[in-house]
Specification:
Layout lengths: L1 H51 L6 H20 L5 H15 L3
């Protein structure tokens, strides 16, 4: 009987540890996504600022910022957030992209 109770205790301990690790991983994933969101937000705002200051960007740079915005959108959707300021910045960037020759 003691073997069975030892196994039950071991299984209980493993369950507790697994639950704790799951919570830590969930927290770290959310923290990682939030850090990515902030980095993408900074890059998008910086790109728009460069355009406003007359810095010429290539089509490849525009494509990279569009891809970054797509990733940003996926992250804020997962975090259940919205940022209209970034939407406005992207509208400006798209407008400037259309002016490229």
């Amino acid at each position: 009987m003691s073997d069975i109770s030892n196994w039950a205790v071991l299984i209980g301990n493993v369950t507790v540890i697994t639950g704790a690790l799951s919570g830590i991983l969930d927290f770290k994933l959310k923290e990682f996504r939030d850090n990515q969101r902030l980095q993408y937000r900074y890059e998008i705002c910086s790109f728009a600022g460069d355009l406003r200051n007359g810095i010429v960007k290539t089509r490849e740079e525009f494509q990279a910022i569009f891809e970054m915005y797509d990733r940003y959108e996926r992250i804020i959707e997962k975090l259940k957030q919205k940022n209209h300021f970034i939407d406005n910045e992207m509208a400006y960037i798209e407008q400037q992209y259309k002016l490229l020759k």
